[in-house]
């Protein structure tokens, strides 16, 4: 069965410091990986997806199939990055069925 | 463009009752998914509907059911409520079942079972 693990429930950094939110997955096939974010009092929303290989709000994530990881990184954290971050996995063509990790609460201190 | 709308936003039920939650997707979106969010289990997939057909179902008991109408609006029903059904139920819509993966979430319906 597929599984997504986010080992850190809480992560605190200072403004301007690099940040890395870890995500490991288990799935025997070829997964599609996503990062979703929920800012305070806002809806859960897509941050980025690995197939796009894009940088959003300075965040990047690389799919490492050898280590089955999809860590989210940003070189210089900003206070507005404080939020709950979820790593999610799906497969096939039904993107409505996501398997989420437990989430990491990121706090960026001034 | 209006976002995903879920009603009711909050509701309180007692054990043994049933509840129906409604979701109106973004206009033009034909795929609707439902998730249960709890502090202990996190976000768990319930169902996915596309063109009135259930495409996928999560690992939940048969007390949890859903449907989708021809206008893409969706409802989910939970019968014989248990205390453990207390959760935030999130609905998400997307353009189609085979799109690039972006789900648009509603604000959720918070169910409390007493």
List the defining traits of the structure above.
heterodimer; A: 110 residues; mainly beta; six-stranded mixed sheet; three-stranded antiparallel sheet; 11 strands; B: 114 residues; seven-stranded mixed sheet; four-stranded antiparallel sheet; 0% helix
List the helices and strands and how they pair.
The complex is a heterodimer of chains A (110) and B (114).
Chain A: E1 3-5, E2 10-14, E3 19-21, E4 24-26, E5 32-38, E6 45-49, E7 60-61, E8 72-74, E9 83-90, E10 99-100, E11 104-109
Parallel strand pairs in A: 2-11
Antiparallel strand pairs in A: 1-4, 3-8, 5-6, 5-9, 7-8, 9-10, 9-11
Chain B: E1 5-7, E2 10-13, E3 19-24, E4 31-38, E5 42-50, E6 53-57, E7 64-68, E8 74-78, E9 87-94, E10 104-105, E11 109-113
Parallel strand pairs in B: 2-11
Antiparallel strand pairs in B: 1-3, 3-8, 4-5, 4-9, 5-6, 7-8, 9-10, 9-11
Q: Choose one word for the global shape of chain B.
A: globular
Instruction: Please give the alpha-carbon distance between the first and last residues of chain A.
Output: 41 Å
Strand content of chain B: over 45%
Number of helices of chain A: 0
Structural class of chain A: mainly beta
Quote the average pLDDT of chain A: 92
With helices defined by DSSP (H or I, 4 residues minimum), what is the helix count of chain B? 0
Strand content of chain A: 35-45%
Percentage of residues in helical conformation of chain A? under 10%
**Mean pLDDT, all residues of chain B:** 93
> What Rg of chain A is obtained from the alpha carbons, in whole angstroms?
13 Å
Unreliable stretches covering 5 or more consecutive residues of chain B: none
Q: What is the tally of beta strands of chain A?
A: 11
Largest sheet of chain B: 7 strands, mixed
Q: Quick one: how many beta strands of chain B? A: 11
Order of helices and strands of chain B: EEEEEEEEEEE
The radius of gyration over CA of chain B amounts to 13 Å
């Amino acid at each position: 069965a597929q599984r997504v693990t986010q080992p850190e429930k809480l992560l605190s950094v200072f403004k301007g410091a690099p940040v890395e939110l870890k995500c490991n997955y288990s799935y025997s096939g070829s997964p599609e990986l996503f990062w979703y974010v929920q800012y305070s009092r806002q809806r859960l929303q897509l941050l980025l997806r690995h197939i796009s290989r894009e940088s959003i709000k300075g965040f990047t994530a690389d799919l490492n199939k050898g280590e089955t990881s999809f860590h989210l990184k940003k070189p210089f954290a900003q206070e507005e990055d404080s939020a709950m971050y979820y790593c999610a996995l799906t497969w096939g063509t039904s993107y409505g069925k996501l398997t989420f990790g437990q989430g990491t609460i990121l706090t960026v201190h001034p | 463009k209006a976002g995903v709308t879920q009603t009711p936003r909050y509701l309180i039920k007692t054990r043994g009752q049933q509840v129906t939650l409604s979701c109106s997707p973004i206009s033009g979106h034909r795929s609707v998914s439902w998730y249960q969010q709890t502090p202990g289990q996190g976000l768990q997939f319930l169902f996915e509907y596309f063109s009135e057909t259930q495409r996928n179902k999560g690992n939940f008991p048969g007390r949890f059911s859903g449907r989708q109408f021809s206008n893409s609006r969706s409802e989910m029903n939970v019968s014989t409520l248990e205390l453990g059904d207390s959760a935030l139920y999130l609905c998400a819509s997307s353009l189609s079942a085979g799109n690039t993966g972006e789900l648009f979430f509603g604000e959720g319906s918070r169910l409390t079972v007493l």
